[in-house]
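Quick one: structure tokens for this chain, please?
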Amino acid sequence: MDNVIKKIGPTPRTAASSGGDWDAPRPSREQAEEAVRTLLAYIGDDPGREGLLDTPRRVVSAYEELFNGYEVQASDVLDRTFSEIGTYDDLVLIRDIPFNSHCEHHMMPFYGQAHVAYLPVERVVGLSKIARLIDVFAHRLQTQERLSSQVVTAIDEVLKPRGVALILEAEHTCMSMRGVEKCGTKTVTTQFSGLFRNDTNEQLRFIQLVRSGAR
């Protein structure tokens, strides 16, 4: 299959390629583990007891995994495209993509499903790359609104399709496990660009295709 590797080069920090522009020195792992010990003491437990001795190391290791999206550029995820699509010029929909992230306000998880479609121009990207792109941005401190915008903007900037459509549905544990404690409440965000933004019929078609697979 014919494919192209786009030579992006160093990617400037933008809303579509980076978590932010903060360039302060990164704390050491030892400092991060000490911060966890401080939090354990703050909540009233003993960081020195047997069950918590290894907790700081485990928490920092977990954070390295949960927030590894800061280490990846969106353009690197979408850098390989394929032209062998014949005369196909309709939307490509990837539905029911599970994701998990953490809200930047309380650092508590939110999780749900993403539905993404785009209208390609001559070339398509591997289907798994769309799911990977969502993980890149989800594995950062986020708001659901910004996550929606970043995914659509990245696809627009790199693939340059005729349009992108996205729906995110998520449950936020900062709302279900604390505060109002409304378990099961879902937040839905949408983002459209190009033809999807300008043509309500295309929006409705996208939504119908997503909902047609709802269980």
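The beta strands are 3-5, 80-82, 92-103, 109-119, 124-125, 141-142, 163-172, 187-193.
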